[in-house]
Amino acid sequence: MTKQLITIIGALATAIVLVLAILFGVTPLVASGFSALAQTAQEESVNQGYRSQVDNLKKEEQRMGEIEKSVAGLRAQIPSDPLLDEPFGIIAESAQRNNLSVESITRGDLAAFVPRTAPSVSGPATNATAGAPQTTPTEDPTTPVDAAEDAAAGADAQTDATNAASGATPPPAPPTPAAPDGISMNGSLTGELQIPVEVTATATDMADVIAFLDGLRGQGRVIAIDKVVVSGSAGELAVTVSAFVFVSTDGAS
User: Fold this and answer.
1) Which domain holds residue 237?
2) Fewer CB atoms inside 10 Å of the end CB: C or N, the chain?
């Protein structure tokens, strides 16, 4: 074997070793390095999000006194009695001030507070399918008041049956206290309560409707707007507002 052939074989062996080293040594290290860089960038993005949240929390902490004052002000606007003349007066005053003609203000039954979903607005400017038939949402007929009344009726029936079996004369039923503002009173309804209120009115301009809704806020009684439906055309708008007023017996004497 000549010296030149040995040199060529040695060069090829060296090249093969280098290629194998690159494939099985350097390449995995490079891939691992890129993966580490990507993971580092992702973690930095997550950390930036956390830092942003911490900064926002620090800002809110600095406003804690303002927030607590605002919450206390809202709580002061929730009485321990229904006092429906207050929200009805606020609604009527805002309607008169903003050129709305109120057709009716009706209220539902006192019930336990239920957190509201996001309010929805429907009207000529926002509802492209206003001409389509509308489906009336179904409501659960069983309210906390109904459940309490059913339970009380069942207890009375059981007591009457027991007295009849023993031959005893059932005691006279205590008089039912008059309910203020026509709301059914029930001793089990305490804590945070709500009363649904529906307003129907007519308006000539959408700007008046918006000003009317704005006028329901900050008038000494919390009125939470749940849904607004506006139908018709400019000059003849029919407005239906579904809202809630609240009652809180917590801390009431």
Assistant:
1) 79-129+182-253
2) C
Q: Number of folded domains in the chain?
A: 2
Q: What is the per-residue pLDDT across 82-114, written as a single tens digit (0 to 9) for each?
A: 888 899 999 999 999 999 999 999 989 888 888
CB under 8 Å to 169, separation ≥6 — which residues?
163
Confidence of residue 155 (pLDDT cuts 50, 70, 90): very low
- Strand stretches in the chain, DSSP E: 101-107, 111-112, 120-122, 192-203, 223-233, 236-248
φ, ψ dihedrals at 175, nearest 5°: -65, 140
Kindly tell me the number of DSSP H helices and DSSP E strands found in the chain.
Answer: 6, 6
Residues contacting 163, CB < 8 A, separation 6+: 169, 170
